[in-house]
Amino acid sequence: MEHEGHRERLRKRYAENGLSGFADHEKLELLLTFAIPRVNTNPIAHRLIDRFGSLTAVLEADRKELEAVKGVGPQASTLLSMLLPLLRDYEQQKILPRVHFSTYSDLAAFCRTLYIGVYREEFYVLSMDAGLNLLSAKCITRGTPTEVNALPRQVLEELLQNHAACAAISHNHPSGSEMPSQEDVDITLAIERVLSGVGIRFLDHVLIAGNRQYSFMRHHWLNGGEPEAADQEFLAAERPQRLMPTENEKRKRKNQRNET
After folding, report:
1. Element (H, E) at 134
2. What 8-state DSSP symbol labels residue 151?
3. How would you classify residue 43: left for phi > 0, otherwise alpha for psi between -120 and 50, otherwise beta?
4. What is the helix (H) or strand (E) element at residue 204, kind and residue range?
5. What's the whole-model pTM score?
6. CB 156 within 8 A of CB 193
């Protein structure tokens, strides 16, 4: 059949040049040939792009949304929906089995891998030993595309279970800015108080929005606005220009900490 020859031509192009020169619909078309036998996948690929708007959006869609597109069955939806989770695992396993955080950039880079292909907010607790070696990175709660709720008690329970000496938390803003909301500030300062009471060093709260991130420690929200000696050393390893707050920012943050 004609489309069988087209499949072979697509596969030959890929074998010779990789995905260079492939349009987005052709990438989908080739991928779908492995899940949909004996059917022309070109119209299905076009329908997917038309429905979701881009290749990225197709790969971020859940299985039910994919199967609403004519021609996409359970096998094809499974294949498409598992690609980004596989990529997330790949990125994490490249730096495993022993993850050590030497700088805030290390921490932010690891946190970004947690949210590859994630289209709703998720809240992670990162448990570390005294040497800043990662013991566990666990999602303790999942929310909507615009909101997630976590309690200081949940964070503490996870850290105590892992016998953590140091900790960081992270959550994502999949559809917005990396800048924290007032709710983000409140929960961060509440967690800082709880962990300080049990002697667990609170390293940072990292917000991720795409390829952007926001560090509460680097923006001087924690430790009363001045990093402790250990955190100054952690910051010094970055060798960037310090993100110094203005006097007005210092007063504002001091007042907010007092209010919470």
Report:
1. strand 134-142
2. -
3. alpha
4. strand 201-209
5. 0.62
6. no
Place of tokens 């069988």: 4
Residues carrying CATH 1.10.150.20, the chain? 2-81
What Å distances lie between residue 185 and 31, 98, 164, 181, 254, CA to CA? 43, 31, 23, 6, 12
With contact defined as beta carbons under 8 Å apart, do 122 and 147 qualify? no
Beta bridge pairs of residue 202? 167
DSSP H or E stretch at residue 138: strand 134-142
Q: Is 2-81 in CATH node 3.40.50.720?
A: no
Q: What is the mean pLDDT of each run of 10 residues along the chain (260 residues)?
A: 73 88 92 89 94 91 92 94 83 66 87 87 94 91 89 95 95 90 93 95 94 89 68 54 49 61
Respond yes or no on whether the N-terminal peptide bond of residue 97 is cis (omega within 30° of 0): yes
Query: What is 92-259's CATH superfamily?
Result: Cytidine Deaminase, domain 2 (3.40.140.10)
Three-state SS for 169? strand
